[in-house]
Amino acid sequence: MVLPKQSIENKIIKRTTVGTLLSWGERFLARSGISSPLFCSEEILRFVLKKRKRSDLYLSDDTMVLQKAQVNEFYSLVERRGGRYPLQYITQEVGFLDFILKVHDGVFIPRPETEILVTETLKRLKDGVRYSVLDIGTGTGNIALSIAQYAPHAHICAVDISDDALRVAHENATRVGVSKQIDFKKSDCFLNIERGRTFDLIISNPPYIARSEFSSLEDEVRAEPYAALYGGGDGLDFYRHIVKEAPLFLNRRSLLSLEVGAGQAEAVKTILTNGNFRNSEIYKDYSHCNRVVIAEW
Asked: Which domain holds residue 13?
């Protein structure tokens, strides 16, 4: 349960230094039921003070009194986090593999589980081969730019239905230095992909939340775009659609790599088998949950 919002005027901190702010933020977030309250407090203060790393906070001179505007911004953002607003939307960045990516509200936040989708797929790619790749639902571009970075001969078409997501993805690709390898295109799955264009790999982390699961979602997840979450009545609509349409866009001896929701791997494997894909393999995530399915065409 989220505690009632505390007014900034009622906070009494005599010395608004890095240490006192971190301590207050940790206590406030802990009372609000936020997990890892110190980490969240550190990340928010790092963002406010424009520090590159959390460790930089502890290298600051704790006798330095911070500016009133900085203190007020910190209070405001901590209170927002206490109200279950996603930390990544507050700091406007998220870690993924070796990258720090930009993200903001209205754009799906990459999860660590998607790192498994990327790394297991990369293991299937051979060095020096000029792969053509389609990334469906690119979001922040985390999948596309990771493949571009670690498979430098690959060329990726990254699609999304969200203009906001495409802008963020392009910015992230530019910052990483792989924008020349990626074409960003507005498309609902395959809708705006030219007929006759084919790929060696189609990869996607599609929406997979079932209708019955929405009531149990955490408030932080509910803050993310609905279109990036809802996968139909049973959560499998996008898998059926992708498997049905993918053969029109795949070369021979190509791959289809999919992230799946908890408990969906076997159902998605069946969909792939019924769609004439073969040699489907299931991979577990960091929590030992079946999370990725890769099949051959």
From this structure: 8-84
- From 28, 96, 108, 199, the catalytic residue: 108
As given in the structure block, the two tokens for residue 135 are 């990334």
Distances (CA, A) of 184 to 1, 119, 152, 228: 41, 22, 17, 17
Q: In this structure, are 179 and 34 located in the same domain?
A: no
Q: What is the CATH number of the domain that holds 34?
A: 1.10.8
One of 37, 86, 110, 206 is an active-site residue; which one? Answer: 206
Q: Please write the tens of the pLDDT for every residue from 151-178.
A: 999 999 999 999 999 999 999 999 999 9
Residues 168 and 266 in one domain: yes
- How far apart are the C-alpha atoms of 193 and 71, rounded to whole Å? 49
247 among known catalytic residues: no
In this structure, what DSSP letter does residue 151 have? S
Contacts with 243 (C-beta within 8 Å, 6 or more apart), sequence order: 256, 271, 272, 274, 275, 277
Active site residue: 142, 172, 205, 290, which one? 205
Say yes or no: 114 and 260 in one domain.
yes
Question: What's the predicted TM-score (pTM) here?
Answer: 0.90
Give me the number of domains the chain comprises: 2
